[in-house]
User: Fold this.
Amino acid sequence: MKLITIYTDGACSGNPGPGGFGAILMYNEKSKEISGGEPNTTNNRMELMAAIVALNCLKEPCEVNLYTDSAYMCNAFLQGWITRWQANGWLTAKKKPVENQDLWQQLVALTEKHKVRFSKVKGHSDNEYNNRCDELARLAIEQIK
Assistant:
């Protein structure tokens, strides 16, 4: 199984507002940058979209180290929120519908296809790949405006 490294980031100008995402996929010495955006969205949706679009680029099941500065995305998997939401019919502990359920369900399906390890990185610091993803996301926003 191929080992892929993915960095992702999402951004929004206003929340909600125009949003963008960026991702870098790395395999051996090769890398690929992807980005995109939506005219009216939220930062959390763009964080999730970055991971979804990046994982959808993989043509076969892979082992993936996914790095994000989104505590929202990392905590959902690392702290078991996803498992609880699914067990509760996609309701939160307060019995409210889970926000961004459509994207969470896509991401869950992708984590069943690929073996994904989520890791949190500090945003807007010295991680060159996270910074580049942020730049890609912001450039995508500019193309939408």
Remarks:
- Helices lie at 43-56, 71-78, 81-87, 101-113, 128-144.
- Strands lie at 3-12, 17-27, 30-41, 63-68, 115-120.
